[in-house]
Amino acid sequence: MDEMEVRRISFIEARSPGAHVYSKFPIPRLGAVLLSTILRDMGFEVKAFIEDTAEPDWSYIENSDLVCISTITPTAVRAYIIADRLREKGIPVIIGGAHPSFMTDEALEHADFVVRGEGDYSLPALVRHLSTGKPPLKDIKGISYKDRDGKVINNPPYPLITDLDSLPEPDFSLVHKWNPSNIYPVSTSRGCPFNCKFCSVIQMFGRKYRFKSVEKTVEEFRYVSSISKATKFIVDDNFTANKKRTKEILRAVLSERIKFKWSAQVRTDVARDEELLKLMADSGCDTTYIGFESINPRTLKAYNKSQDLDDIVRCIKAVKDHGIYIHGMFVLGADTDDVDTIRKTADFAIKLGIDTVQFVILTPLPGTPFFYEMRDEGRLLHTDWSKYDAHHIVFRPKELDPVTLQIETLKAMARFYSWKYILKNLARFEWFYAGIGLYGKRAIKKGLKEIYSYLDSIGLGSPADMAMHH
């Protein structure tokens, strides 16, 4: 592609395909906002459009010199439709995110360039090349494109960024119709030192855990608490991976009297550290998102989760004792799971008083070891990526019939978000949770309807067979 004039750049984060219990709280993935900020700081006119939070201004987008699209696996189908439409109008498209990073050849059928992995350096270098001709394409690490003969060229990957402090503060004013009272995402680290088999984080951001300095993180917390009263969601895959650092941050938040409500993803090991839990509670931690994954010991082993059932029970009790809510995440459908596992998981979550849950279906995401294993064993049911959203069954489990896994997972959600759950929360004046219970009930009812036609469409049964499951 020859040098071109680039003034206006649009960034689009493609919309999720279906509604589920968590569509009510869409959180923008920070990548699009951060990269828009970097490009704006280079002097370009940039706007970011997050389809899950507001309908984009298509006339603005179609008058852009360049469009960047960010996508994960379940939004890829939508991302490709947008990309095709824009290229037909002669607008060059760069696509990035977890899905294109692993399905590069596929993504290049729909885009001029793919940015693989972290885009913090690769994308600005590519945009600079398009507007000035320098640096030469072959020197830009982390990008893929087709040469003049249509051959795919994958430049070597860009090394994982180590100095997170050098990145700017993501500027949410660049986001079209951004509502500051929405949940506000903040990132303080990247990567995860663990290695769960079904997770795409390690493939995308590495096992080397990299983090912002304590000073920079505290400064960021001070800034976000001053501009928005909304709960801050710390998007790190594990905010307490380095406990010493987390404690230093929280002590500083307390001593500087930074007042804000926050929630974060943590592992069950937080329960082993009384001091850490106390600091979390005192500094405004409202909810923890914890990947319990399974109550089946064999499955925890298979997932490579490095935790056992005792850890889970101890964790729930300790976190609740500190007045912090728990959103528990469970992944169902491993080769070691059967119907009993699913039902027992719902009972377990109810009995231990977890505040909200997400029961998701194990999903082989491109880039993960689990995906290649399922593909090579011929166990994928299809590759319609829009259904790779952890709410649809897309592979054949070992012990469970796919239809059973699908229906029983929805029924487990229904068992959790019951009238009893709703009334119990109303009795405690927990309006928010009572509301989630009602919302969950509605979403599950809608989900069951949609699931029957989905199962039928992939040849897994007619409505008559389904009736037997109901």
**What is the CATH superfamily of the domain at 179-345?**
Aldolase class I
What kind of sheet is the major sheet? 7 strands, mixed
Task: Provide the helix percentage.
Answer: 40-55%
Structural class: alpha/beta
Total number of helices: 18
Average pLDDT score: 91
Q: What's the level 1 CATH class of the domain at 179-345? A: Alpha Beta
Low-confidence stretches: 19-24
Which strand order does the major sheet show?
A: 2-1-3-4-5-6-7
How large a portion of the residues is in β-strands, by DSSP E?
Answer: 5-15%
Shape summary? globular
Question: What name does the CATH topology of the domain at 179-345 carry?
Answer: TIM Barrel
Please give the number of β-strands. 15
N-to-C CA distance: 56 Å
| CATH architectural designation of the domain at 179-345 | Alpha-Beta Barrel
Computed over alpha carbons, the radius of gyration is: 23 Å
Structure summarized in a few sentences:
The protein has 18 helices and 15 strands. It has helices at 30-41, 58-62, 76-88, 98-102, 104-107, 122-132, 201-205, 214-227, 243-255, 274-282, 297-302, 309-321, 339-351, 369-376, 402-416, 419-427, 431-457, 463-469, and strands spanning 8-13, 45-50, 66-70, 93-96, 113-115, 143-146, 152-154, 184-186, 189-190, 210-211, 232-234, 262-266, 285-293, 325-332, 356-361.
